[in-house]
Amino acid sequence: MYGLTPQELELSALIVEALNLSVNPHDVDPEAPLYGGTLGLDSIDLLEISMVISKQYGFMISSDSDNKMEIFSCLRNLCTYVQMHKVK
Questions:
Q1: Measuring CA to CA, which residue among 43, 56, 42 is closest to residue 14?
Q2: Measured between alpha carbons, how far is 20 from 22 in angstroms, rounded to an integer?
Q3: What is the mean pLDDT of the chain?
């Protein structure tokens, strides 16, 4: 179990549910790589996460964004980005 912030836990739960992962949202390491890390996510999964974030938080992460790799590098970075840009 990791010390996830409430926002990180919310995003972790959203990701776990959207991708139907067999992991408890509390057990997602907030600093582990999302792509190819312990969750085994690939580029299609990251696209799905982008779509779920768009629906849940009211903004789109552009696929041609210059810092896309940094945004999706880990749950913590993704959560920080979501908190800075969310509309809902």
A1: 56
A2: 7
A3: 94
How many Cβ atoms from other residues are within 10 Å of residue 66's Cβ? 8
* Residue 41, strand partner residues: 35
H or E element, residue 45: helix 43-57
Please choose, from the candidates 40, 35, 10, 38, the residue with its C-alpha nearest in 3D space to the C-alpha of residue 25: 10
Contact 22, 46 (CB under 8 A): no
**What is the reported pTM?**
0.92
Query: Is residue 7 pLDDT above 90, yes or no?
Result: yes
30's tokens? 């907030």
Taking only Cα atoms into account, the Rg of the chain, rounded to an integer number of angstroms, comes to 12
Answer for the pair 36, 43: CB distance below 8 angstroms, yes or no.
no
